[in-house]
Amino acid sequence: MTTDTVVRLLQKSFRVTLGATASLVEILQDPQRREANLTKLKTDLEELTQEWAEKGEVTEIEARNYVDNFIAQKRSEMSSASTTVPTTATEVKPASPEVQLELQELTAQLAAIRAEIERLRTEEHR
């Protein structure tokens, strides 16, 4: 058996199972179909297997389309959500006088440090 034959056999088995499951669901939902399918089951299993394979193929395609559409929808939602970032305005309260004084002192210290660094750099280059 070649790999292609095995893949086809597995695919047909999957589709037969899927079709049989879909038929079972239909049988459970519709009493008239129940009698027709039970009679059919007694007569020709090979024909029924082929019908299930076809029904399974259709069900597989429908399921794949549903999943693809679902994924595409989620991707578009995610991409639109990432492009539109909500912005919120936050109210900035004025700092207390103590904090403002401390900030001024720190700013002055930073300026003094920068000046010292510049002075040292110029001395090194001489």
UniProtKB/TrEMBL annotation:
Compositionally biased spans, kind Low complexity: 79-90
Keyword Coiled coil tagged: yes
Segments of this protein annotated with the region Disordered: 77-96
Keywords: Coiled coil
Coiled coil stretches, renumbered: 96-123
Superkingdom of the source species: Bacteria
Name of protein: Uncharacterized protein
Organism expressing this protein natively: Leptolyngbya boryana NIES-2135
Lineage: Bacteria, Bacillati, Cyanobacteriota, Cyanophyceae, Leptolyngbyales
